[in-house]
Amino acid sequence: MSKRYENNSSPTELLPGDIEYEMGTPIPGVILRKEQWVQTAIKRLPDESLQLSEIFARSAPIAVDIGCGNGRFTISSAVRRPDWDHIGIDILPAVIRYGTRRGNQRGLSNVRFAVCDGWRFLEKYLPKNSVNEFHIYHPQPYADPTLSSRRMLTPEFMAMMHERLSDGGQVYLQSDRREYWDYIKTIMERMFVWHEVDGPWPEDEYGRSRREVLSVEQGLKIYRGVGTKRSDLTAEEMQTILLELPQPKFQVEGGERRSKRTLRKRPNRPGKPKRNR
């Protein structure tokens, strides 16, 4: 099996048998022949809740990647767990185009990508008790305090995830901002059975998002945790929790800091890569 290094994350020149690289780290899955490609884009969202069993033509556990970026985790999980169905959403059409192409090229019929923000997707398109896992890796911290109202992970949003999870459903979270992480823990500990994860996710040794790869390169600490839905909370208890919890108006130290150290570049391999015959 051949390898091709892709410093710019562009999958457009990959050929059958290639393993795609992004910043020197592999994107899971192998590029297939074009006749084996599938269509993973939800090009137009409906006016009502998604019928997940119709989208995937089967009934299977559902994992939703909110803010999926260019699809690194969604693709990895779909390759690793063919018995699960996956939906990746992001508000940026450009990164969704990367994700869909990657899903298409790998023949992943258990993946769909859509351009949508998290609030709208949960409120409008996901029925109650319909999701088994939510994944949110490096939510936008909006370090400028005047933009704190744009932060997605409010108590209300966490409660909405709780409502849409099935019994025993889980939320996987990750951030490289300590202030945001401390706030996340405050919310999750009230609504979920919460535990933090020490070290990288064992299934994804190279990271679950482009941001994580960059953060590791910059020497930033990565915070990780998993929350399991508490099924013992009544509607009245959840409402009390919402009234007691603060909104995310904290200060993020350091702003949108970047490491002064130049990220290591992996040069493109010279010549045409060899392939399996």
Main beta-sheet strand count, sense and barrel state: 7 strands, mixed
The secondary-structure class comes to alpha/beta
Strand order of the largest sheet: 5-4-3-6-7-9-8
Overall geometry comes to globular
Strand content: 15-25%
Q: From the alpha-carbon coordinates, what is the Rg to the nearest angstrom? A: 19 Å
What is the CATH C level class, in words? Alpha Beta
Structure description:
By secondary structure, the chain is α/β, with parallel strands linked by helices. It has one domain: Vaccinia Virus protein VP39 (Rossmann fold, 3-Layer(aba) Sandwich). Helix content is 28%, strand content 18%. The chain is globular and about 55 Å long.
Task: Record keyword descriptors for this entry.
Rossmann fold, alpha/beta, single chain, 9 strands, disordered N terminus, 277 residues, seven-stranded mixed sheet, disordered C terminus, globular
How would you sum up this structure in a few lines?
With about 280 residues, this protein is α/β, with parallel strands linked by helices. About 30% of the residues lie in helices and about 20% in strands. The strands form two sheets. It has a seven-stranded mixed beta sheet, sandwiched between helices. Strands 1-2 form a two-stranded antiparallel ribbon.
